[in-house]
User: What shape does this take?
Amino acid sequence: MTRAVDAALEYAIPRIGITAARLLDPDLVGQAHHPRGPAGRLTAWEMAHRPSNRRRCIWAVSLLDVQPTDQVLEIGYGPGVAIAALARVGAAHVYGVDHSGVMHHHATRRNAAAVRAGRVTLLRASVDEIPPEIGPFDAILAVNALGFWSAPTERLTRLRQQLTPGGCIAIVSQPRCPGATAKTSRNAARDIETLLIQAGLSNTRTQTLLLDPPAVCVIATASPQNRGAEP
Ligand SMILES: C[S@@+](CC[C@H](N)C(=O)[O-])C[C@H]1O[C@@H](n2cnc3c(N)ncnc32)[C@H](O)[C@@H]1O
Assistant: This one.
């Protein structure tokens, strides 16, 4: 029963959300990159309710093995589904950065109790301008977000410098381009792995969640001596 409902929602939600958003703003890729205005609010609704989006966010958090002392950062939190999961699994503090005002509003509403309790801090900022006073982080997560960053190797290098020794970065991709297949996901994982290695991280491992198309999560760790050194 749940499966049938999920399948129906997976079919209907993007069709309703994307069709309505396209009527308001034909630039859907631009909306995924920087959701804004009424079309951005529809994009947020779609991201928050589409079952595969929710599943990949919750799955990604489950891979991080979050400990009660962990400081965790999510980049590109969107409507805040993974932020809520990180707070639920008991991270000491969850930080999020996203440059979209619409997403900041939605994620803050979704996580209102944890924000009020001082366990979650959501910033409206670009990945290029993470305030130096937050961190270091035990884990950094980005779900379907890295593809929008300019200069991803430089950004990942800077993020590595904001990890605790032995901390990890997890980058998730579920390709949403038309016609995406398992091969598209595998290629995405390979590209992410290359970027993480170029940024000075190591011990990469890839996990796959069997959605259609699959979501891949590449996790890499900083060396035990990590802190600010160039790769
Ligand atoms: C496709 S959505 C994914 C949202 C969420 N992670 C999820 O999986 O549901 C991409 C998100 O990344 C954010 N984003 C894109 N480029 C960014 C940047 N350079 N700095 C911060 N956030 C960014 C967008 O505002 C958007 O909320």
